[in-house]
Design goal:
Helix content: 25-40%
Radius of gyration: 24 Å
Shape: globular
Order of helices and strands: HHHEEEEEHEEEEHEHEEEHHHHEHHHEH
Oligomer: single chain
Strand order of the largest sheet: 5-4-3-6-10
Number of helices: 14
Distance between the termini: 22 Å
CATH superfamily of the largest domain: ATPase, nucleotide binding domain
Number of domains: 3
Bound molecules: zinc ion
CATH architecture of the largest domain: 2-Layer Sandwich
Number of strands: 15
CATH class of the largest domain: Alpha Beta
Strand content: 15-25%
């Protein structure tokens, strides 16, 4: 979705500038929900009259509301604070995993309001048709303009423009036109992104403290495999074909375990949830019996199960080996671990740090923080919502209203 269009002479069209200014104001209100009109003018660089013009229009459209602030110390006219009306706009998130799809509605402040799950069907086309029907049902009562878009988290190597899954080995999907089947005739914009990258996006968008948003960090997801999302200078690292940072398929042991990608000894084969589950089955000789997933292995370790404790100790070493590579390549301020590694972080962190200190020079390691994600339960879905909201709210450049080049003044 382009925010700016150019006239045939190359000049910015007036309606695009107006839309850009409107986004600037909306973005400022989203990021600071207690701003007055005067604050907005100061932050955005727009003139007070322009801000008033835009705010009045948004009030009429019921996009924002304005409330008096109780401040008894203030003499004279009490200031007013602007905030988004949560119900004014919605975003749809679609997360695909090995067993089901989650379809979610969230309002444009990011609060989830509705959720539906769609069980996975063996035939991908049938699966996507069911998800499409669910999106249609959930958005039926909404006007077209109320739906900001649909964010879809895709597994494996995918085309971000069309939503085609080129290869997702763990799903057994090759050349699947997911985007075409999901969208069909729905009128909203659809956005597609690799699910590991989305989880990194969720960490920045839904940061508990907006003032401490991470700018250079790596998210490691360990569900249905091992993926990484790398954020550099606040942006997702994409690479030439949107497939950058597949750290799950970097090599720990050249003669090691065979991986679904065709290589041997990939990090994913040693540190993913599937690897933990397999290692536990091998230790307890429960092959062919009850499937114990990685979260359950963490739980059993807490209960004193020696096999589970042994698997987590061994796996912590493998996690650390991969993190050595991540740290040496990206010089991140933080590494955020998801899934079972987040659930079992307290049990594994000592071993992980021991290995890192033994293998990474202190001057590379100092300042790097490693911590579990706060969005373990539904971080991928939150990433899908964040994908839509970040597309909508970014006005010009990186979506930072105070960034140079973002202040376009016209009304
Ligand atoms: Zn591999």
């Amino acid at each position: 979705m382009a925010d700016v269009t150019f006239t045939t002479s190359g000049a910015l069209s007036k309606s695009s500038l107006r839309q850009g200014n409107e986004r600037l104001v909306l973005n400022a209100i989203r990021q600071h929900p207690t701003l007055s009109r005067a604050d907005i003018a100061r932050i955005t660089g727009l003139s007070p009259s322009t801000v008033t013009f835009i705010v009045e229009r948004m009030l009429r459209q019921k996009l924002v509301c304005e409330e008096r602030v109780n401040n008894h110390a203030q003499v004279g006219r009490r200031p007013t604070a602007l905030r988004l009306r949560p119900e004014a706009r919605i975003a749809v998130g679609v997360e695909l995993n090995l067993t089901q799809a989650q379809v979610t509605l969230a309002n444009w402040t990011g609060e989830i309001t509705k959720e539906r799950s769609v069980p996975r069907y063996a035939a991908p086309e049938l699966f996507f048709n069911k998800i499409h029907d669910t999106i249609r049902t959930l958005t039926r009562a909404k006007a077209e303009t109320e739906v900001l878009g649909v964010g879809v988290g895709l597994p494996g190597f995918s085309d971000r423009t069309t939503g085609k899954v080129i290869a997702a080995e763990n799903f057994n999907w090759t050349g699947i036109e997911a985007g075409r089947h999901l969208r069909k005739d729905l009128p909203f914009p659809f956005y597609y992104e690799n699910s590991a990258k989305l989880r990194a996006l969720a960490e920045t968008w839904f940061s508990p403290n907006a003032g401490k948003t991470l700018r250079d960090f790596v998210f490691v997801t360990m569900r249905g495999g091992l993926g990484t999302g790398v954020i550099i200078n606040g942006q997702i690292l994409q690479g030439a074909f949107s497939a950058a940072a597949e750290f799950g398929h970097t090599i720990l042991y050249p003669e090691g375990r065979r991986c679904a990608c065709g290589n041997t000894g990939c990090w994913e084969q040693y540190a993913s949830d599937l690897a933990v589950s397999r290692a536990y089955a091998e230790r307890t000789k429960t092959r062919g019996g009850e499937e114990i997933d990685a979260e359950m292995v963490v739980q059993r370790a807490r209960e004193g199960d020696r096999a589970a404790i042994g698997v987590l100790d061994e796996t912590a070493g493998y996690i650390a080996l991969g993190l050595v590579n991540v740290i040496m390549v990206f010089n991140p301020e933080a590494i955020v671990l998801g899934d079972y590694a987040a659930a079992g972080w307290d049990l594994m962190q000592e071993k992980i740090w021991d290995v890192l200190r033994a293998r990474v020079p202190a001057y590379y390691l100092s300042g790097v923080r490693i911590f579990p994600s706060e969005h373990v339960a539904n971080s991928s879905l939150k990433g899908c919502i964040a994908l839509v909201l970040s597309q909508y709210f970014k006005s010009f450049g990186d979506g930072n209203p105070s960034a140079p080049g973002n202040s376009v003044i016209i009304h």
